[in-house]
Amino acid sequence: MIALKRRLAEQIPPMRDRVKTTIKELGDHVISDVTIAQAYGGMRGVKSLVTETSAVDPQEGIRFRGYSIPEIRAKLPTAPNGEQPLPEGLFYLLLTGEIPTVEEVAEITQAWRGAEELPAHVATTLDALPKDLHPMTQLSIGISALQHDSIFAQRYQAGLAKTDLWEAMFDDSMRLIGRLPGVAAYIYRRSYRDGDHVAPAAKELDWAANLAHMLGSEDEGFRELCRLYLTILADHEGGNVSAHATHLVGSALSDPYLALSAGINGLAGPLHGLASQEVTRWILEMKEKLGGGVPSEQQMKDFVWETLNSGQVVPGYGHGVLRATDPRYMAQQEFAQTHMPDDENFKIVRMLYDVVPAILKEQGKAKNPWPNVDAHTGPLFMHYGITEYPYFTVLFGVSRAIGVLSSLIWDRALGLPIERPKSVTTAWIEEQVSQTAS
Ligand code: CMX
Predict the structure, then answer these.
(1) Contacts of 273 (CB under 8 A, 6+ apart)
(2) Res. 437: pLDDT tops 80
(3) Is 272 a catalytic site residue?
(4) Which protein residue has the closest C-alpha to ligand 1 atom 46?
(5) Which one of 67, 104, 139, 433 has the fewest beta carbons within 10 angstroms of its own beta carbon?
(6) What does the pLDDT look like over 51-63, one tens digit per residue?
(7) Above 90 in pLDDT, residue 147?
């Protein structure tokens, strides 16, 4: 058993007791009221989920088990000659709340890389799809096809006790995360490189760098970008669409393949993860319209207003929780500043940062005029030759799997029940209000 699983097995019993005591002693304590506006308005701000792995502060942004992005960049193990954190280390941190050692991270790399071979039927399934089927749809289908080998589903059928479900969830999640780079690279190479697939690298290479390799790049800068990107996008507390969808589907004791593909389908929406595609499409449209190159500030302002006046959103700006610049955006900006300061698309993204917030404030609708995580992805990937922007959200999905599967393991460890909130009708609401008024 690897150190991570052993550590989890130690942590689960006291955490179960802690949650049981919390429910028993504090169960009637009110932590959130729900207004009619919130019931219609996407439940924004309603505290009705418990997620241990991370938390988002509106001003400060994400903390993974209490650690900010600068802190995880300083503390998590890196590749031998690298500076960026390894996603394997974040997985350990999300699951246990502890910073792993280099050896503990190496064990996870070994386990993930050991599971990477793509089952033949998954390749056949993907090959049957149109090459221009959106890469996120292909990813969702690829993950669903992997479900054939679900340990959780098999052991549940065989009569696994509720208290042991987390173990099967852990084993499945390790294998699923191990296989994701293979699925993601397969989709990229079949859709954009005529099916000229790249075999996995030697097993010493870490999980993110091997994904970079299978995409077709041997650039050390791209490896570092993959390590950073796949780490910082992994988790963003429990209420975002991909995390919430995975948690919800998992609550029916669906296995992690079924739960994650639901989350991936949510990530594929333009108001969530697809925004990284939309930002790039929008920037390229702006460049084409304005004759190429870096536009002037006035041209950019006019283009932003045009977007807003035609009833569209400015992609990459705004957020459901954040009310300041996303630290995940800042981490990507810092990377770009170091690795590609003269890149034209980076300069445009940098200029947008100076232009868009003032316009969104003037328009007065968006509660958060600042950039989110997706505003910066495009220039980074394009710089390293991944120019096919509909693909970007697949890489977001590979990262997000780490966070949502960590939470799913804890959901089963704590025995959380099937999720089933109560819905009401407009007539019911009107009746309640008229009764209160009379
Ligand atoms: N451009 C234009 N209008 C925006 C806007 C933006 N970037 N962000 C918010 N608004 C508008 C909303 O559409 C809404 O308008 P209506 O009242 O006409 O419906 C109004 O401002 C209030 O919205 P809000 O409360 O500020 O934002 P929400 O919590 O409802 O939505 C989000 C959050 C992210 C969907 C929204 O800001 C948006 O659409 N942004 C652009 C898409 C994007 O970048 N999504 C990626 C988010 C990060 C991620 O999940 O990956």
Answers:
(1) 136, 242, 267, 374, 393, 396, 397, 400
(2) no
(3) yes
(4) 272
(5) 433
(6) 999 999 999 999 9
(7) yes
Tell me which of 213, 244, 319, 339 is the catalytic residue.
319
Whole-angstrom distance, CA of residue 253 vs CA of residue 166: 11
Q: Is the pLDDT of residue 438 over 90?
A: no
Rounded to the nearest whole angstrom, what is the distance from the C-alpha of residue 231 to the centroid of ligand 1?
Answer: 25
Q: Among 134, 244, 247, 272, which one carries the catalytic annotation?
A: 272
For residue 62, the SS3 value is: strand
Atom 32 of ligand 1, residue of closest alpha carbon = 319
pLDDT at 257 over 90: yes
In a domain, 187, yes or no: no
Phi, psi dihedrals of residue 326, rounded to the nearest 5°? -65, 125
Residue 194 lies in a domain: no
Query: Which tens digit of pLDDT belongs to each residue from 18-28?
Result: 999 999 999 99
Q: What is the pTM of this model?
A: 0.97
Domains in the chain: how many in total? 1
Q: What is the span of the domain harbouring residue 330?
A: 275-383
The whole-number pLDDT of residue 51 equals 98
Residue 436 banded pLDDT, cuts 50, 70, 90 = confident
| Chain center to CA of 378 | 16
The pLDDT score that the predictor gives to residue 412 is 98
Residue 292 lies in a domain: yes
Residue whose structure tokens are 């710089």: 383
User: Any catalytic annotation for residue 319?
Assistant: yes
Under 8 Å between Cβ of 235 and 243: yes
Per the domain annotation, does 326 fall within a domain?
yes
CA-based nearest residue to 345, from 304, 396, 299, 292: 292
Residues with CB under 6 A from ligand 1: 44, 240, 271-273, 275, 308, 313-320, 365-368, 372-374
